[in-house]
Amino acid sequence: MPTPARPLSAIPSPGARVLAFVAILAGGFAGGLIGHTLAGLQCTGDCDLPQGLGMWGGSIVGAAGAAIVAILVLRAQGEWRELADRP
């Protein structure tokens, strides 16, 4: 039985993992900006707490959404690599 050229692994490449991490950070940042802006538009007077809570909540939701998409993309990439490696 011939040995494979590289060990079989479902772990994505380091570049793909770094790109996924950056995408999650960008999603959290964009969500924070959206949450901060929405809270600021709906508030009058002292809006520090509502804007902070909107920014925090938006960041969590944005990062969680981007993380779900990143995980699905990395899994699909692993499956495509597995199909390409088949003889």
Tell me about this structure.
By secondary structure, the protein is mainly α. The protein has one domain (14-85). The chain has 2 helices and no strands. The protein has helices at residues 14-42, 48-85. Helix 1 (14-42) packs antiparallel against helix 2. The longest helix has 38 residues, at 48-85. It is rod-shaped.
Task: Provide tags for this entry.
mainly alpha, 87 residues
Describe, in short, the structure shown.
By secondary structure, this protein is mostly helical.
Write the layout of secondary structure elements.
Blueprint: H1 14-42, H2 48-85
Helix pairs in contact: 1-2
What would you call the quaternary organization? single chain
Share of residues in helices:
over 70%
Secondary-structure class: mainly alpha
Number of helices: 2
Spatial extent as radius of gyration: 20 Å
Supply the number of structural domains. 1
Query: What is the element string, with H for helices and E for strands?
Result: HH
End-to-end distance, in Å? 14 Å
Residue stretches low in confidence (pLDDT < 50, at least 5 long) are: none
